[in-house]
């Protein structure tokens, strides 16, 4: 039940509907300030209730590197030997193209009614995209219960992403619209909520150009910036997105190993004056 203060007085005991799991969170968590919103299209009020939950942290059972991309939504590699690409469902691509056509038609009209319809379509498209991202994130999390997810730090994603100059307009549009950070955010909070494991972000620089076997870094390792990775030094071959995911996971493994060395030697091993073996 919920109670509200209105201009006509206080309304009490309005029944609330929702997912049973959400009501469990309301009972066990700390409730923040609710927000009442109104959806004009459905003429329905929605009460958004933020809840802070205490989640017991657990040691990760594996480390999973995740590389998000434009050709494939994500590539994942695990310390248990699992590696695969995740593609968007065909329905998603078709719906996005449909929304793009509608936007183009409405923008060309420029009327008030067209602008109102454009706003409704944008909201509908956003809800659809968010739902697809939730499904993908949940499937990834539940496929690796208790895994520590290592993600790219996408702070500079706009500056460092692939530039589609000379490519078709559709490729450039998809590059601009894809919500990389939204997918990562869903992976992070679901991993913590479901299994109590904290995710981590690393610098993604050169992850798709670095050979995970010998460490050789070169643009030439990605012929024509294609999907194939071929190390020009040792000959290692793999899908470029998989290589990116491997290197993302490796950066945390190396960081953890350095931490173990620091504990062993009692010093910061990255300092020039730190003790050295041998």
UniProtKB/TrEMBL annotation:
Alphabetic keyword roster: DNA recombination, DNA-binding, Transposition
GO biological process, one term: transposition
N-terminal signal peptide: none
GO molecular function list: DNA binding
Pfam family, one: OrfB_IS605
UniProt keyword annotation of DNA-binding present: yes
Domain Probable transposase IS891/IS1136/IS1341, residue spans: 51-154
Keyword DNA-binding attributed: yes
Domain Cas12f1-like TNB: 180-248
Family: In the N-terminal section; belongs to the transposase 2 family.
Protein's recorded name: Transposase-related protein
Organism encoding this protein: Thermotoga maritima (strain ATCC 43589 / DSM 3109 / JCM 10099 / NBRC 100826 / MSB8)
């Amino acid at each position: 039940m919920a109670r509200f203060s209105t201009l006509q007085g206080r309304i009490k005991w309005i029944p609330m509907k929702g997912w049973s799991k959400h009501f469990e969170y309301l009972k066990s968590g700390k409730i923040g300030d609710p927000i009442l919103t109104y959806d004009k299209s459905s003429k329905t009020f929605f009460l958004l209730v933020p809840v802070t939950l205490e989640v017991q942290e657990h040691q990760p059972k594996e480390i999973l590197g995740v590389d998000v991309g434009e050709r494939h939504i994500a590539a994942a590699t695990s310390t248990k030997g699992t590696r695969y690409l995740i593609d968007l469902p065909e329905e998603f691509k078709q719906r996005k193209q449909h929304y793009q056509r509608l936007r183009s038609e409405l923008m060309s009209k420029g009327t008030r009614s067209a602008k109102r319809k454009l706003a409704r379509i944008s909201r509908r498209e956003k809800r659809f995209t968010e739902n697809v991202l939730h499904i993908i994130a949940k499937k990834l999390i539940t496929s690796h219960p208790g895994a520590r997810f290592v993600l790219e730090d996408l702070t500079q994603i706009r500056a460092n992403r692939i530039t589609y100059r000379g490519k078709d307009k559709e490729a450039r549009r998809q590059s601009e619209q894809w919500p990389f950070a939204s997918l990562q955010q869903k992976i992070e909070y679901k991993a913590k909520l479901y299994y109590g494991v904290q995710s981590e972000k690393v610098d993604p620089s050169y992850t798709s150009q670095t050979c995970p076997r010998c460490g050789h870094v070169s643009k030439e390792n990605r012929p024509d910036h294609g999907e194939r990775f071929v190390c020009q030094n040792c000959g290692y071959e793999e899908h470029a997105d998989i290589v990116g995911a491997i290197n993302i996971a490796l950066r945390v493994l190396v960081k953890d190993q350095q931490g173990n060395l620091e504990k062993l030697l009692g010093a910061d091993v990255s300092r020039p004056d730190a003790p050295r073996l041998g």
